Amino acid sequence: MLGPVLETLIGGLMTGVLYSLVALGFVLIFKASGVFNFAQGAMVLFAALSFARLSEAMPLVLAFALSVLIMIALAYAIEFLVLRRLVNQEGIILFMATLGIAYFLEGFGQSIWGSDIYKIGLGLPTNPIFILESVFPGGLLIDPAELIAAIICAVMVLVLAVFFQVTRIGRALRAVADDHQAAQSVGIPLNHIWLMVWAVSGLVALVAGMMWGAKLGVQFSLSLIALKALPVLILGGFTSIPGAIVGGLIIGAGEKLAEVLLAPVLIRTFDLAGGGIENWFAYVLALVFLLVRPQGLFGERIIERV
Fold first, then answer.
1. 40-55 vs 91-113: helix axis angle to the nearest 10?
2. Which helix (H) or strand (E) holds 118?
3. How far apart are CA 182 and CA 179, in angstroms?
4. What's the pTM value of the predicted model, to 2 decimals?
5. Domain tally for the chain?
6. Which of 224, 286, 227, 282 shows the shortest CA–CA distance to 258?
7. Tens digits of per-residue pLDDT, 221-246?
8. Contact 164, 243 (CB under 8 A)
9. Are 19 and 229 in contact (CB under 8 A)?
10. Which of 16, 197, 271, 298 could cysteine-pair with 237, CB 3.0–4.6 Å?
11. Which domain holds residue 204?
């Protein structure tokens, strides 16, 4: 019994790293503007569509380079056409702006790249790997493609976490999120910060879209995967990059283990048909955290003095 549980746990942790990467895009925007970026899922979809269609006509390296340029250009367009005109506005106005950006990107992506289901071939190995064969009968099955994707995402998450935690840009992000006017008064260029953060968020969306697209195929339901980042953010904290990492691992491992361990108990106890726990477990866990610790594991407690 221990072997299948460990196998499920390892698979869940690798999926959790992909969740962390998607959640990281939300954290970067939130730290720069104090607003939940509803457009992050659409950015993941748009980036995946760009790479998938470009890779059909050119080598993967060139397709990736052009996709990076597309996401940087998209970040510049968003900052120049939308965000620059919303400096010092209320948070709800910025949130509605990201909502509009999300719907625009979904429709714009469909107009440019099409609405079919596209495959992304990254050339990752497909033959399964078996480990600890001397400990568990038959060993533990590891998907090498998922393992490589998890390693790539983990490296990217850790590099960005260190960069934004210990550099001057990271401190500028926190200042901008706390108070736009105060940040501008001490010489922090708000427009430059927003442009940089949206560009980095676009690159994160590109890598996430490539990994999820290679796993599930590029289709317009891919943007819904970003909704799984919401429980990750609630657990880890909306302002914490390490929280996005830990929250993603908890959600990834928790939903896989719940499907394997909790489902049989619920079936026997309540005479249920079974299955589907993986779809709602993360949101129930997030609800519990909201009741017990609403700022998340690593989030900052907000205290307002009146």
1. 20
2. none
3. 5
4. 0.84
5. 1
6. 282
7. 777 777 788 899 889 888 777 888 88
8. no
9. yes
10. 298
11. 17-226
